[in-house]
Amino acid sequence: MRTARIASALLMGLAVLGYSGWLLEFFLPTGVSPVRDPVEALLVTGPPVFRVLLAVSGVAFVLAGPPLHRLGPVQWSARLSSISVSAFGVLVLVQAAYPERSDVLSPLLSVVLVAGVISLILWWPPGWRALAVTGLILVLATWLAVVLARQFDTCEGVFTRLQLLVRAALYGTGGVYAFVKPAPRHAHR
What we know:
Blueprint: H1 2-19, H2 41-45, H3 49-71, H4 76-97, H5 102-123, H6 126-152, H7 156-180
Helix pairs in contact: 1-3, 1-7, 3-4, 4-5, 5-6, 6-7
């Protein structure tokens, strides 16, 4: 159990760091506008480091799923949480390989994240559950903001970056939970 906790914490930490690699745009010349251009434009026109970091993140998310699976209680909602982490990783890997398909992949990433957060709401204890509910609201709000920004062709870059910050914060919170608060191995009755 201790090994699973350490492995999940390290992998989730690596995944979140890699997924936050877009922040390097503020230190590297990219030619991508952080206000107008969606963050995914970094994968297409930016230096290769953005795709490499995204791929590393995807691998780490995929590999974090199995240790998280061992830590959660034996019930479907906890299992869905760990499965959604690995599924998110697979989609991130596909996005790193095919960045020109980000317009399709980004909404799918949001769907997987929403499913994962809902599963957390169903099994996390009350204090942590409140964090998951807040996270769900933020995920849905940033998703809506991105959709509206695209519709009105304004500030899409700002909202896609905000969306990635929210995603990274949620996965970071999940990694912390897995490390500091291991769940019971049985379902509540």
